[in-house]
Design a protein that fits this description.
With 691 residues, the protein is of the alpha+beta class. The chain is 30% helix and 26% strand. It contains 16 helices and 35 strands. Strands 13, 14, 15, 20, 23, 24, 31, 34 and 35 form a nine-stranded mixed sheet that branches. The chain has a six-stranded mixed sheet with strand order 3-2-1-4-11-12. Strands 6-5-9-10 form a four-stranded parallel sheet.
């Protein structure tokens, strides 16, 4: 018997999943301990290990981990003093940004303050030209006074980002060598290693984020490894990355910028698993937890992958209002609030929900931890969807009176009843999430209408039915272990690394030898990383793509290449692949225009990871265990309540109905039929006349 353990630290709850080789699984949730994330990690791990009657020493398959530690550091600005070294004359690159206005009609745009301030930024007299030629080398003596000033400022990490260093990293590496001797205790992030791509602001922003996070990420991961060894855990932990793969803790600590979306990425990857399992051509993952809700579109069994994303947006749904990061990431969108999002009445007397969140401390009013604001979970409880005595299987009692009291304050301001205010919160959250999902799909040239939803996360099954109706979807899948599905996703996710190298040139002018050198470099780097994660070199699979555009355009799209560029540069095949992808995005192609390569990409994976879970089903159909009064759209309903584990395969239930499991509740609205499938999943479908 072997065991695999996964821990996913979220904004409100820390999820734990233990899977054995015979298909048994044990799950649990505990509140995230923000002052010390590892405290909650080990608490969650001990809960599931205790249920299985095993110890850390018995976890001999893998230990996988997804965490919000990097996101927290960036948003809360709790990183160590970090410095930036640029080419002389480019000190203000983080302030000037790219001069893009994300809202043309707002004269008072808000932007996040740079992580590295002007007083900790220095310019160095050097020059690398765009073709990689070194115009002026670095003088090590120039770094002596800079190092002294950094020491006085207590700098612990240095970001080094020089002009055109993606074309030739010689000067960046020279600065690192010199500074490492002058400041041996400081960590260094080189843009030629973190993000070797064109566009100075993007590259500088990405390198600054990496440098800012390193003094937190490396001690965190080292402590995790150390404490696991103290608990006789034989395996080195694998860390979930934003691109949907796992790597070893050493590589993750060196490039923490790649960890930012680790938890949500795991959820998107497991959604791909279910899309293939049920033969869905398209599927939308709907992951709603305690802090946020995220969606990802799965096409042909694969999630969309983007070469760029943002963190710390000033306006949640406005691209360009945050800090851009140019590393490969699962293309997800934050589509709304979580269970802890706070409801309020704005200055116009309108009900609003979020973006502020009560998190896990103090949490919603019903948690009884000092929270006084009405949150989404409070509304779910006040409506009757949640059972105050059965939250987390009864281990965490909720205070329904506190929820009603908090919502009553809003109801008074709106001149409505408590039930009407609670339904208003529920409906507003659903409408906003559906609206964001529509925009996300439309921007990518995908028709969202009728796309099935995969609902997971602690709050996802509670709200998915309402969101599906707004998206005109006719089917929802509620997978087993829905509330901890992202944690489970890390156990079925292969080791993976995505790398990119800029090489701006027209397709007709591509230098095959130069491209082969770039590809070889990326293949070698990715192989080293995956071998470090425990993968045999012979089992690594490589895929190749390129960022392309028409000549003269500003923005590019990522195109999957039909062959290994090292073998041949088939211009016609590459151009055809580009135009097919371009037409998907924009609905047209531009005849007679030359195609241009911006960057080459390599994706290295370790193949499929199979850790199936056997879900026990009841031998015969069962009656509801109780009924509960639930307020739905202005009317009270006497709703049947079932225990999910008591359902028999093939059993069908008519909405409205509540199906409870330990860590979440499935809420099916009127007009829907839910059926228990053979694998333990539940499938809800809308009646034809309402589809």
């Amino acid at each position: 018997m072997t065991y695999a353990l996964a821990i996913d630290i979220g904004g409100t709850f820390t999820d734990a999943v233990l899977v054995s080789s015979d298909g048994n699984a044990w799950t649990d949730k505990t509140l995230t301990t923000h002052d010390d994330l590892l405290e909650g990690l080990f608490r969650g791990a001990e809960l599931v290990l205790g249920k299985a009657g095993v110890s850390f020493a018995d976890v001999d398959d893998i230990f996988a981990h997804a965490t919000t530690v990097i996101t927290n550091v960036l948003i809360e600005r709790k990183g160590a003093p970090t410095a930036l070294i640029t080419t002389q004359g480019f000190k203000d690159v983080l302030y000037i940004r790219d001069e893009h206005r994300y809202d043309m009609f707002d004269p008072q745009l808000e932007l996040p303050e740079p992580l590295i301030t002007a007083d900790l930024t220095w310019g160095v007299d050097e020059r690398t030209f765009s073709d990689g030629t070194i115009g002026k080398t670095v003088n090590a003596a120039d770094l002596l006074p800079i190092a002294e000033e950094m020491k006085k400022a207590g700098v612990q990490s240095v970001a080094i980002c020089l002009l055109n260093s993606y074309a030739n990293p010689q000067n960046e590496r020279a600065i690192k060598t010199a500074l490492s001797e002058l400041m041996p205790d400081a960590v260094m992030s080189l843009s030629c290693e973190v993000a070797p791509q064109m566009r100075e602001y993007l590259r500088t922003s990405t390198t600054a984020v990496n440098a800012y996070a390193m003094p937190t990420a490396q001690p965190y991961l080292r402590r995790l490894v150390k404490e696991l060894k103290q608990r006789d855990q034989p395996r080195t932990p694998l860390i979930m990355m934003s691109n949907g793969g796992v790597v070893g803790a050493g590589v993750a600590g060196q490039y923490p910028v790649r960890m930012i979306e680790s938890g949500p990425a795991a959820g998107a990857l497991i959604a791909s698993f279910f899309a293939e399992k049920y033969n869905f051509e398209s599927l939308m993952s709907f992951d709603m937890g305690g802090t946020t809700a995220k969606a990802c579109l799965i096409q042909d069994g694969e999630p969309l992958v983007s070469g760029e994303f943002e963190v710390d947006r000033r306006y949640r749904f406005k691209p360009g209002s945050g800090m851009p990061i140019t590393v490969p990431s699962i293309d997800m969108i934050e589509i709304g609030a979580g269970g802890g999002s706070i409801a309020r009445v704005d200055y116009m007397g309108l009900l609003k929900v979020g973006p502020d969140s009560a998190g896990s401390s103090p949490g919603p009013a019903c948690y009884g931890r000092g929270g006084e604001n009405a949150c989404v979970t409070d509304a779910d409880l006040a409506l009757g969807i949640l059972d105050a005595d059965n939250f987390l299987g009864g281990d965490m009692k909720l205070d329904k009176g506190a929820s009603q009291a908090a919502i009553a304050k809003l109801a008074d301001g709106l001149n409505v009843s408590v039930s009407e205010a609670a339904w208003g919160i529920y409906a507003i959250v659903g409408e906003s999430m559906a609206g964001a999902a529509r925009a996300h799909a439309t921007d990518r040239g995908i028709n969202y209408r009728g796309v099935p939803l995969l609902a997971f996360g602690g709050a996802g099954p509670v709200h998915a039915c309402y969101v599906a109706e707004q998206l005109e979807s006719t089917q929802i899948i509620y997978p087993p272990m829905a509330s901890v599905l992202s944690a489970y996703g890390t156990l079925v996710t292969p080791a993976r690394l995505d790398l990119a190298r800029s090489n701006l040139t027209l397709l007709a002018d591509v230098d095959g030898d130069h491209v082969s050198g770039l590809i070889d470099e990326m293949v070698a780097e990715s192989q080293d990383a995956l071998v470090d994660a425990g993968v045999e070199a012979g089992n690594i699979i490589y895929a190749f793509s390129a960022d392309m555009r028409y000549g003269g355009q500003q923005s590019e799209i990522t195109v999957t290449l039909p062959h290994d560029p090292r073998e041949t540069i088939d211009e016609r095949a590459i151009k055809d692949a580009f135009e097919k992808t371009y037409e998907t995005f924009y609905g047209l192609t531009l005849e007679g225009m030359e195609a241009e390569i911006v960057s080459w990409r390599v994706t290295a994976t370790a193949g499929d990871q199979s850790r199936n879970v056997i879900v026990p089903m009841a031998a015969q159909e069962t009656a509801p265990k109780s009924t509960r009064d639930v307020y739905i759209a202005g009317q009270s309903h006497d709703v049947s309540v079932y225990d999910r584990l008591s359902l028999k395969a093939g059993q069908q239930l008519q909405g409205p109905v509540l199906i409870e499991e330990r860590e979440t509740t499935i809420f099916v609205l009127p007009g829907w039929t839910v059926e228990a499938l053979e694998d333990g999943a539940l499938s809800a479908t809308r009646e034809n006349e309402q589809a």
